[in-house]
Write a structure and sequence with these properties.
single chain; 239 residues; seven-stranded parallel beta sheet
C-alpha cells in the first residue's frame, strides 16, 4: 500500500480503526474519518493517520470536508450502527437512523470520492463494510439487515457504473466481529451460544480478520475483483 491514499470512515473504533492502523503500517496515507475527536487524535498519534472529524450523515458537511482532499486511491466505508428491535416494535426514527448511517452515508461518500477520482483520472478501489446480516435473517435485526442488504445493492450498482472508470467496488460481509458494539450486542450467552454453534469455525471474528481482506480488496492483488459481497463468517452462510 506504499504511496496509496485511502479514506477510512468509522475509523475511531472496531473494524475501521483496525483497518486504518493496518493500512498505515503498510505505508498508506490514511485519512481517518469519525465523530470522536479525541479518538481521532489518539489514532493520529499512534499510527500517523490524518484525522478528519465528520458526521457522515451530513451530506453538506461531507462535501465541505472532502473539498480539499486530493489524490485518493481508495475508500473504506466502515461507519455503522446497530439499533436492535423486533419487527413488531420497530421505531421509524431508529429505522431511518440505521439506514442513514449504514447505507445512505456510504452511497454519498462513495459519490464524492468517485467524482474526484474520475476528475483526476485515478483508478482505485472502494470497499463497503457490510455484514452477514445482508445475506441471512437475524431476529431483532430488521433495520440492520435492511441497511446492509441496501449496502450490498449499492456495491453492485456502483460496480457497474464506476467500472468503466477503473474503480472497483466490493463489500465484505463479516459475521459477529468482536468490536465494542458487538461485544455489547452479543454479551448474553443465551444469544451468542446458538450463533457460535451455527458458525463452523466455532468463533466470532476479530477486527483483524476483517481488516486483512479489506486491505486485499484495496490492493493490486484484487485487480479483477469487483461487485462481490465477500462473506467473512467462518462458514455461517454456507448452510
Amino acid at each position: 500500500m506504499n504511496n496509496k491514499k485511502i479514506i477510512v470512515t468509522g475509523a475511531t473504533s472496531g473494524i475501521g480503526r483496525t483497518t486504518a492502523q493496518l493500512l498505515a503500517s503498510l505505508g498508506a496515507e490514511v485519512v481517518a474519518i469519525g465523530r470522536q475527536r479525541d479518538q481521532l487524535a489518539l489514532l493520529q498519534e499512534e499510527s500517523g493517520c490524518t484525522p478528519l472529524a465528520l458526521d457522515v450523515t451530513d451530506s453538506a458537511a461531507m462535501q465541505a470536508a472532502l473539498a480539499g482532499v486530493r489524490g485518493v486511491d481508495g475508500l473504506v466505508n466502515c461507519s455503522g450502527i446497530a439499533l436492535l428491535e423486533s419487527s413488531l416494535d420497530l421505531d421509524p426514527d431508529n429505522f431511518d437512523r440505521v439506514m442513514a448511517v449504514n447505507a445512505r452515508s456510504a452511497a454519498l461518500m462513495s459519490r464524492h470520492v468517485a467524482q474526484k477520482m474520475i476528475a483526476e483520472k485515478r483508478q482505485g478501489s472502494i470497499v463497503n463494510v457490510s455484514s452477514q446480516a445482508s445475506l441471512v435473517a437475524l431476529e431483532n435485526h430488521l433495520a440492520y439487515c435492511a441497511s446492509k442488504a441496501a449496502l450490498d445493492a449499492i456495491t453492485r450498482v456502483m460496480c457497474l457504473e464506476l467500472g468503466p472508470h477503473g474503480i472497483r467496488v466490493n463489500s465484505v460481509n463479516p459475521t459477529v466481529t468482536l468490536t465494542p458494539m458487538a461485544v455489547q450486542a452479543w454479551s448474553d450467552p443465551a444469544k451468542s451460544g446458538p450463533m457460535l454453534e451455527a458458525i463452523p469455525l466455532r468463533r466470532f471474528a476479530t477486527p483483524e480478520d476483517v481488516a486483512r481482506p479489506i486491505v486485499f480488496l484495496l490492493g493490486d492483488g484484487a485487480a479483477m475483483i469487483s461487485g462481490v459481497s465477500l462473506a467473512i463468517d467462518g462458514g455461517y452462510t454456507a448452510r
